[in-house]
């Protein structure tokens, strides 16, 4: 498995992007990364909050037109 996987959460509204992120994260090892591409601006708050609760790290958060891209690293 590569170090980074991509999560396409476009056109999904809260809480589905976070649920999909959680499901994907459960299959990854510490240090691996998820690049989430979303269209719901709420993810800019929801995913970092989920990361703080679960010990993961937000490496990058940016917007590109109507898409929001977050890169997180799975914690140990």
What key attributes describe this structure?
single chain, 76 residues, alpha+beta, Translation Initiation Factor IF3, 2 helices
Can you give a write-up of this model?
- The protein has 76 residues and is α+β, with helices and mostly antiparallel strands.
- The chain has a single domain (4-73), classed as TusA-like domain (Translation Initiation Factor IF3), CATH 3.30.110.40.
- The protein is built from two helices and four strands.
- The protein has a four-stranded mixed beta sheet with strand order 1-2-4-3, covered by helices on one side.
- The protein is globular.
- The mean pLDDT is 96.
User: What is the CATH class?
Assistant: Alpha Beta
Instruction: Tell me the structural class.
Output: alpha+beta
What strand order characterises the main sheet?
A: 1-2-4-3
Order of SSEs, N→C? Answer: EHEHEE
Q: How many DSSP-defined strands? A: 4
The name of the CATH topology is Translation Initiation Factor IF3
Spans of at least 5 consecutive residues whose pLDDT stays below 50 are none
Beta-sheet strand percentage?
A: 35-45%
First-to-last CA distance:
17 Å
Counted by DSSP, the helix tally is 2
Tell me which oligomeric state these chains represent. single chain
CATH homologous superfamily? TusA-like domain
What percent of residues adopt helix (DSSP H or I)?
Answer: 25-40%
Mean pLDDT: 96
Tell me, briefly, the overall form.
globular
How large, in whole angstroms, is the Cα Rg?
Answer: 11 Å
Largest sheet: 4 strands, mixed
